[in-house]
Write a structure and sequence with these properties.
Strand content: under 5%
Order of helices and strands: HHHH
Mean pLDDT: 79
Shape: rod-shaped
Distance between the termini: 104 Å
Length: about 220
């Protein structure tokens, strides 16, 4: 595990523990204190998501055996963070419903308000549109994360391919050097062979002349 990942993980664990404590305390608060605490939790969740993305990027640059363990750990962190989001949403909407009910009771209109069918239809339509918009936002975020993961994967592949290319380049240089040395050796051998041929020819010529001279004097 890299020191960078450990640093991000330490920050995330401290932040996550603090957020869960605030979420627990927010259930017992009312009014502005509750709104302020929920706002702080929302900001902390954004920061926690940023730390998870940073850990994810760092984990994908490590060795495969280490990377697999760290990615599994990150999936657990994401699951915990999603649970925290659901709890914050429950507290937030529960607080809004309670405030609306209290307002109706205080005004004395709780028993006199009758919502028409048309109003209910429009409300349901609006709620449905909001739900679809929320789904589209989630899909966009998921697509962005998938694109980010794909970019990291491509960079890893390029990095892994770079090393074999460099080794192949070095091997070709070595082959070129060996071919150059072989060529020089063959050239030297050819020169020696030519030199030996001339030497043998000269010796043969001298021997022939010597034999002719000897025969000449013997015959004479």
């Amino acid at each position: 595990m890299s020191e960078v990942f450990e640093g991000y993980e330490r920050q995330y664990c401290e932040l996550s523990a603090n957020l869960f404590r605030k979420c627990t305390s927010a259930s017992a608060l009312d009014g502005e204190q509750k709104k302020q605490t929920l706002s702080e939790i929302t900001g902390g969740i954004d920061e926690a998501e940023s730390l998870i993305r940073k850990m994810n990027l760092d984990a994908r640059t490590l060795q495969p055996s280490v990377k697999a363990n760290l990615l599994a750990k990150l999936r657990e962190y994401k699951s915990d963070l999603n649970n925290l989001k659901r709890e914050v949403k429950r507290i937030t909407f529960g607080n809004l419903n309670a405030a609306a009910r209290n307002e109706l009771l205080e005004s004395g209109l709780a028993d006199t308000i009758a919502v028409s069918a048309d109003q209910r239809t429009r409300l349901m339509s609006t709620t449905e549109r909001l739900g679809k918009s929320s789904d589209r936002i989630k899909d966009s975020q998921r697509t962005m994360l998938e694109t980010e993961d794909l970019g990291v994967s491509i960079l890893e592949d390029l990095h892994s391919q770079r090393q074999p290319l460099l080794r192949a380049h070095d091997t070709l240089h070595g082959v070129d050097d060996n071919i150059g040395r072989s060529k020089r050796i063959l050239t030297n051998m050819s020169r020696r062979m030519n030199k030996n041929k001339w030497t043998i020819a000269c010796i043969g010529t001298v021997l022939v002349i010597a034999i002719i001279v000897i025969l000449y004097f013997k015959l004479k």
